[in-house]
Design brief:
The complex is a heterodimer of chains A (274) and B (266).
Chain A (H helix, E strand, L loop, with lengths): L27 H20 L3 H6 L1 H12 L6 H33 L7 H16 L2 H12 L3 H25 L3 H9 L4 H12 L1 H17 L1 H7 L4 H10 L3 H29 L1
Helix pairs in contact in A: 3-13, 4-7, 4-10, 4-12, 5-7, 6-7, 6-11, 7-10, 8-9, 10-13, 11-12, 12-13
Chain B lengths: L9 H25 L3 H6 L1 H12 L7 H36 L10 H12 L3 H12 L3 H27 L1 H9 L4 H40 L2 H10 L3 H29 L2
Classes of the chains: A mainly alpha (274), B mainly alpha (266).
């Protein structure tokens, strides 16, 4: 009977029922939830939004959608051209940033070249680039390249390169040191290690990040349109502002279809790779 | 002749080859269409640096009243992001319960819920902002709603996937012993998925801090609107200090969420 194992008495509530909650709880979670709820209520008061007035206008949303759904196909050539431009901007900005991101990611990961101060410096520089909103970069590039698709590509590239550098460097750093040491012991150079060990083993992650960024870059087309760098976003914003809801509806619908298509394709590719 | 042992299987090699060809063709087509060349960037870089040196730098500080205005607008932007994300998260939690086939009491409805979320998600936040501004008018409230829509749709998908990943067996055994739907959620889903939900929530906060600046620029208020008005009136050196302030805000929020993510995952 007495073999040294002591079973703790079952925990009971005051009413005598068995307690079924978990013993090892993370105490930070309820505190976090409380703080977030408090801050949200505070910020809702701070914003002083007139909810009643907003709610009274909700029927207007329905009428706008009704107008948007009356597709006006007469300007399909303009929409098609803008859509092709947006797609080109998306593809080119992603590809250029992919190359730059691989290069800078290699330099910024601190397990490949092992120059700690340099990778620190590079990482903080790209953190800054990422923190500045994209429209600012597009506007800056427009000063340099003039209105048009080129400014859009270059502006998107800044943000995308910074994003890729950070996420690729993280993927590279997650590789176990043993792999790198084994190659080092056989006398492979730094670049050889990167090309033969680091790159192949992070390929799946790189493809996943690229797919995600392709989606994001496509949806940034609206931002490009806002500042005048061309593409479908410009058609949408100018048509809505000019009350041509039929044309805007077609453009928005096509944007939705393409974004959905990109998402589906990458879900399939990710499944295939796993 | 030296014969090498191939390092990857031929079928894989063929796949990568095809993939590479597709990328090269796409690259060529897009370059031909947009006539973009990186060389142009290098050629015009004098222009760029001159603009940066003369108009942007040094960052200037406007009068005291305007500084107060700018600081206030930063708080408005943060409050917009926070309010939108939290509202979206609460709504998304309840909706995603019905969007996950293993948890939902009506599994057949799950596809419909997910389809609806996919519709909301794949229209960019700024396009939602344009649509809403033209129907509800301009203002912070409308900006919050626009941010809310996309992050709601994103979180429905993320939450539903988290539930599918984690709590399959747990839900089934609870169902077998006769737990009702609210009990299944409270004792099965929540304990195992909460940390996953919170990390998606923090990710959405990061995204929305950036997005609320951008939505602000087209009329949502906050620091984006202030920045855009300075840029439009060509007062670039004040704009420069606002940009630095925005960058500081974004970095600060990223640091806080990074810390919290580590703390909550324990």
């Amino acid at each position: 009977m007495n073999n040294g194992i002591r079973i703790a008495a079952p925990r009971r509530t005051r009413a005598g029922k068995l307690r079924i909650d978990c013993l090892e709880k993370n105490r930070a979670v309820p505190a976090f939830l409380g703080v977030v709820a408090g801050l949200t209520v505070l910020s809702l008061f701070f914003l002083q939004i007139d909810w009643l007035r907003l709610a009274s206008r909700i029927p207007d949303i329905g009428s706008i959608f009704w107008k948007l759904l009356h597709f006006d196909l007469s300007r399909l050539d303009l929409i098609g051209e803008a859509l092709l431009e947006t797609l080109s901007i998306t593809v080119l900005s992603t590809l250029y940033s992919l190359v730059l991101g691989l290069l800078f990611g290699m330099l910024a990961a601190d397990n490949i070249f092992r120059v700690r101060w340099f990778s620190r410096l590079l990482k903080s520089f790209f953190t800054f680039l990422r923190a500045v909103p994209t429209p600012v970069w597009v506007l800056l590039m427009m000063v340099c390249l003039g209105m048009g698709a080129s400014a859009g590509i270059a502006g998107l590239c800044v943000h995308t390169t910074a994003f890729f550098t950070k996420s690729f460097a993280e993927s590279f750093e997650s590789i176990p040191d043993e792999t790198l040491e084994a190659l080092e012991a056989t006398g492979v150079g730094r670049l050889g290690i990167f090309l033969n060990a680091v790159l192949p083993s992070t390929l799946a992650q790189i493809i996943a990040w690229t797919g995600m960024r392709l989606e994001v870059n496509f949806s940034e087309c609206a931002i490009l349109g806002m500042v005048g760098a061309g593409g479908i976003g410009f058609v949408i914003s100018s048509c809505i502002q000019g009350y041509e809801y039929g044309t805007a509806g077609v453009a928005i619908f096509l944007v939705f279809l393409i974004a959905y298509g990109i998402e589906r394709v990458f879900v399939q590719i990710k499944k295939r790779i796993r | 002749m030296k014969k090498r042992i191939p390092q990857i299987s031929p079928s894989e090699r063929r796949m990568y080859g095809a993939f590479f060809c597709v990328i090269v063709v796409l690259f060529a087509l897009c370059t031909a269409y947009t006539r973009f060349s990186p060389l142009e960037l290098v050629q015009n870089s004098d222009n760029f640096w001159a603009f940066l040196r003369e108009d942007f730098l040094p960052p200037a500080i406007p009068g005291a009243a305007k500084v107060e205005n700018i600081i206030n607008s930063i708080f408005v932007t943060v409050a917009m992001a926070l309010a939108a994300t939290t509202t979206a998260a609460i709504l998304a939690f309840f909706v995603s319960l019905f969007g996950s086939e293993s948890v939902s009491p009506f599994p057949k409805m799950a596809k419909v819920v997910r389809g609806f979320a996919a519709f909301l998600r794949n229209i960019p936040a700024l396009v939602w902002a344009f649509i809403l501004f033209s129907s509800l008018g301009i203002g912070t409230g409308v900006g919050v709603v626009a941010l809310c829509i996309t992050s709601f749709a994103f979180m429905v998908r993320a939450f539903a996937e988290t539930m599918e990943d984690i709590s399959q067996d747990c839900i089934e055994s609870l169902q077998a012993v006769g737990a009702s739907f609210p009990q299944r959620v409270a004792h099965g889903v929540l304990p195992s998925c909460l940390s996953g939900f919170l990390s998606w929530y923090l990710y959405c906060i990061e995204v929305n801090i950036r997005a609320s600046t951008i939505v602000g620029m087209v009329g949502g208020g906050g620091v984006g609107l202030v920045l855009f008005s300075y840029i439009k009136s060509f007062r670039y050196n004040v704009a420069c200090s606002i940009i630095l302030l925005i960058a500081a805000m974004v970095i600060a929020v990223d640091l806080v969420t990074g810390r919290l993510r580590g703390e909550l995952a324990k």
